[in-house]
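Reopening this one. Same input as before:
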Amino acid sequence: MVDVCHYNVSQNEIYGRYLTANKDLECGELIFIDSPFVVGPKPDASPLCLGCYCPIENTVCSRCSWPICSAECEQSVQHKPECEIFLQAKVRFQPIEDWSASSPQLDCITPLRLLLAKEKDPERWKREVEIMENHTEERRKKPTWDADQNNVVNYLIEHCKLEGRFSKDLVQKVCGILEVNAVEIPSRGGFSVRAVYPRLAIAAHSCVPNIVHTILHKDYEVQVRAAVPIKNGETLHISYTHVLSPTLLRREHLLESKFFNCMCPRCADPTELGTHLSTLKCNKCDNGVILSTNPLDNDAEWKCTDKNCGFKTSSVAMRKMLGVVLAELEQLDALDPGPSSLELREATLKKYKSVFHPCHAMLVSLKHALAQLYGRVENYLLDDLPDLLLERKVELCRLILKVLDVVSPGDSRMRGMMLYELHAPLMYLARSEYAAGLITQDKLKERLQEPIHCLSNAARILCREDPQSPEGITGNIALHSLEALKASLESL
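Same output, byte for byte:
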């Protein structure tokens, strides 16, 4: 593929290096393609094959004894160099009892691969990677510094006997480059791993991004596109956080992992640009809602907006409460998708209905999961759903799309998936009403235009994804469903 480069690199005191568009960009237009400098396991990962990143249990490399799933992966280009190092140093992967638990032994793998990539391509290292932020002084104050020193620096230099090739300072610098610049990506094996993309790493952050990226599984190449129309000279913004997180959690994540305080317009607005993703209900009065008095201060007080109410609470109490609810949501996410996981989410929604604004991020996360579960799990398949639950699925999808219009406008994977989820209940409801004699054939044709529109846009967005990814597969299904729906419409 011809190299595409529709950006310029600029620099200022706020962002450091950042990217701007060098031409007017259309929605969905390819801006650039980037190949990873390194790919490997995340910190605290459970054991996975160091060749294909599949989950693994009790299978190891015949030469070095580190986790490998097959003879093919044993010969993979990413594993062979580290295999030689482990073999020469006689460093073996220590036996473990629980192969599903995190294994600190793997923490050294990606830093080692980055060091070896530096040796292999010193020019690219110097040009693209060495200049990346690593925030050494800030990282010294974090507990992860000591963990990196023991599990990575000392392990590689002393146990793996690499003192003649790399210094301890360089290894810590590599740990910093990975912590600050690596992005989490889906692997071919279905595990999340991390990768460093030199050009993508330059893109500035905003909690309302205007660019999106797609990872291709074959070689982990990343394609970066405009999510919305972008004018020549505008800054290209990617989101380093989950767009459906509340401001307090987003800003703390960015400070903890990327070492900066986000000051974007969304973070500065207590209502999160009118979405109310951080808003709580006030149980002391019926007229106000609870908002942060200064969302750009993580320690600011939270108060009711009704001047006659006077209710207030601390950021400490708010953080504690969000932590409790987040832990509940993570437990729900760990459940296998099925009728009980759907019903438990509905029960959790009711539980917190009087606490959160209907559009609070915690409830929106639950509703996002429910929008995908209705029609897909036993007892709640599309053919089983009564009109009331079909309307529930429509309501959930429309809410997510309305929120995305503000916090992740344009062509995002999440929008594509929600449009696909929305088309089916709309189609079923229209056909149900026609079969019951409630609408005419002309009205049916009119009503089926919206699911056609949903499928068309879902296919357009999702067919840009890797064909083997869940989103790419859904895009292909959307394309075929679109043709089938159009054909059935013509036959009416």
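So the earlier flakiness isn't reproducible anymore. For the record, The first helix runs from residue 71 to 74.
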